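Appendix C: a fully annotated inverse folding record. The material below is reproduced so that readers can follow the format used throughout the book. The structure is listed first as tokens, followed by the designed sequence.
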């Protein structure tokens, strides 16, 4: 997909840029996107009831919180796999934008926001 055709979701903490999914019409089995978190910000506490998620940190520093596990300090090149139904969120602990590739095991990713 050409970069200018990706679907962008702006948020108070950064943005999500979607490049592959059923709703985009270019995948019947997966969702792929980029998550960009502003310095000092945290994305929403959430879970995905219908799919696993893999995060790969491209740039920046993230402290990733998933379920009851100890938070994982991520540096560029690190990845984490989050099973379906596990609550999680990412905290940008660096001074620049944190950029992650996000991949889901469903073309119709569901998200439930948590308090």
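Designed amino acids, in order:
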């Amino acid at each position: 997909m050409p970069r200018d055709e990706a679907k962008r979701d702006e948020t108070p903490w950064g943005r999500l840029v979607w490049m592959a999914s059923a709703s985009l019409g270019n995948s019947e089995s997966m969702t792929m996107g980029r998550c960009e978190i502003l310095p000092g910000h945290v994305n929403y506490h959430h879970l995905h009831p219908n799919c696993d998620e893999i995060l790969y940190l491209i740039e920046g520093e993230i402290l990733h919180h998933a379920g009851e596990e100890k938070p994982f300090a991520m540096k560029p090149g690190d990845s984490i796999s989050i099973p379906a139904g596990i609550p999680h969120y990412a905290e940008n602990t660096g001074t620049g934008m944190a950029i992650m590739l996000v991949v889901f095991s469903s073309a119709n990713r569901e998200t439930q926001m948590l308090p």
